[in-house]
Write a structure and sequence with these properties.
alpha/beta; 11 helices; Four Helix Bundle (Hemerythrin (Met), subunit A); four-stranded mixed sheet
Amino acid sequence: MQRVYILEQGSYLRKSGPNLALYKDQKLVEEIPGSGLKQLVLMGYTSLSGGVIDFLIRNRVETVFLSPSGGFRGRLNIDEHKDVQRRRKQYLNLSHEEFALKIARTIVHGKVRNQARFLQVQGQRNRNENILAAALALKTVSRHTREALDVDTLRGMEGHAASMYYRAFGILIKNPDFKFSTRTKRPPQDPPNALLSFIYTILTSEVLSAIRTAGLDPGLGALHEPAYGRPSLACDLVEEWRTFIADRLVLQLINRGTVKQDDFVYRSIARTDFVDEHDLVQKRPVEMKPGPRRALVQTYENWMSTELQSRELEKKLSLRNFILHQVRHFMACIMDDNPEYKPFSLSEKM
């Protein structure tokens, strides 16, 4: 067991011999084997005993803390990567306006191109002219991203593309029990949005871990502005994976009936403004129940074990290792060992 997700709100994690024991309301929920544990992802409010913290540090277990709504809160840093020159080069290059704009253009171009390709394939399979029209429009936007003169203009193009993409995404949902009209985030307003937000969160955590492994600083990216506590580089490099990993998975879960309406808790909320993360939890209009959410995490883990052929390496890689490969490719660009960063291309895989 290399990766464990703790999703129980208000739970308590303490040491139990060589293992970790998860308690809630003074009852044992599960015992987590300590042997082989490499990463611990805590979503929401989970207390850790001193013995657990000592175990995590001594065994160098990467520990990621997420808010109840899935936002990144922090990470238990065992130590930094020993090659400080990588981070120094990252700071220098990404602080250079032209270099950062070039990277940002590449990221957005890759994201929108993948969205267009995905809709093109789905439109052909479904023989739906509206989806095909959206794919064509997104192709046009992807070409124009290469010409953006500044990052703000680029972000505007990305937002316009996202609006078109998610309108078409709603058409692809064939399960009559689920409706999707637009993308909503804080908080998600319906089950498809809740599923997307949840998968996007753990996928970003995946990219964050790869960035740390590569020895880069996740706080400084090119497209997303640096902000206190935000892993901006992870937010940048997750973009190329959203469609191929997250959107495809959510669409499959819904259309195959793997997730059902009664897997969610629904609330009638008059106001959705909030003062903090704890207040946001109480005001979520829709939330996945703990049992189905744990099953979703297991499905995601199985999904990440899928292997893809890498033309560059001439061998197959799991999706998780493919993400690490892409981050190392980005690092080579940062270090000036590679003239151009090439995001993952969905067109080669569909």
